[in-house]
Amino acid sequence: MKKQKLILISFFFLLFNINPLLSSDQNYLLISGKPKITDGDTIKINNKKIRFGGIDAPESFFFGKKQSCVLNNVEILCGKLSKDKLIEKIGNQIVNCKIEKNKDQYSRLIGECFLKNESLSVFMVKNGYAFDYPKYSKGKFRKYQTFAKKFSLGLWQMQFEYPWIWRKKNR
Prior knowledge:
single chain, alpha+beta, CATH 2.40.50.90, two-stranded antiparallel ribbon, 28% strand
């Protein structure tokens, strides 16, 4: 009987430590782990695809197409550039994501992810490798985008199309 109780307690402990936990405000799930970077605005942790809410990065692979930008008359795969910047930022570190209740149109989780308490969304927009996505952001990242644009950071030194416009033309 003692052994069964110990096994049962161990099972529940394991169960609750593996599953995402509700945060203190009860509006978000928390997911943590070492991510695989899919795009400049999408990662995968524990086989869960997470799309950064409120920002949009150029596409590294969208229905077989790769988004490009132009710098000094040279075509650059800016989707890959954005993805590589996120890979470089995260390295082999653990990321913590606050996941919203709703999923996006592709059934991905939506959230804001942090590396040592720094928002990866803010990092990507402020450095010019992603954009404030007005349709979903309610202007949350606008000031970071203004900063990147003012100082011609990242993609702001190139000719580009916003990803949401590029996707519409390349479906």
